[in-house]
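Q: A small favour: would you put together sequence and structure tokens for a protein?
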Amino acid sequence: MKIVLLCFAGFIAAFVDSIAGGGGLISVPAYYMAGLPSHIVLGTNKFSAACGSLTSSIKYLKSGHGNKNLLKYAIPFTLVGACIGVTVALQINEQTLSSIILVMVLIIGVYSLFSKSLGMKENLKKVTKLRILLLILLALCLGFYDGFFGPGTGSFLMFGLIQLFGFEFTRASANARVMNFVSNITSLFLFAINMKINFTYGIPVAIFSILGARLGTSFALKKGAKIIKPIFITMSLLLSLKLLIVDVLHLI
């Protein structure tokens, strides 16, 4: 029964994540409810998430929505950031980081809610050296964040790409998924060599994550920004709520 429930959670998580990010809000609590210890939860979740993000990345790239010229700059620094994030995970106060992320995600969610034009139409901006440097910084920071903490990485990437390059939500989601896959697979490798993955749960959940990612990506490509934006805002605000609850419980 645990595996059945985990597979269902993995399917929904991958479906949502392939559209607007935030799938970890569903899958991570599900792994905890299955009784896994924290480090195994993180490693096993990376395993299923990497399978889902690979599936959606391939589908998005085949659709032509990925920008390979920008991704060639972003991918190496996403990888480096993820390596650093996993390596120093135990040396940083997670509660402090959680509080910072809470404020940032809340701002993004509220801003997106009230900005009617954000990501609805492409308003492509010139690719300058400054924007490339900012993209590299975005990739490095969010690669680190995904390796260390994780929730909301896809949402941050999408928002950053929209602001930097004027992408519409569909194109932002496509490029964010590829970058997110790189940080996922890098983190997964480090968790794997440290034997922090429960494959008994991870493999069946990964299969359903692949199915969820395929369906979610097809849905996003068909419906476009009009469906991606409300899901993006919803997941951003839910993440804010989750982090706020965690902060309050920690204070109590």
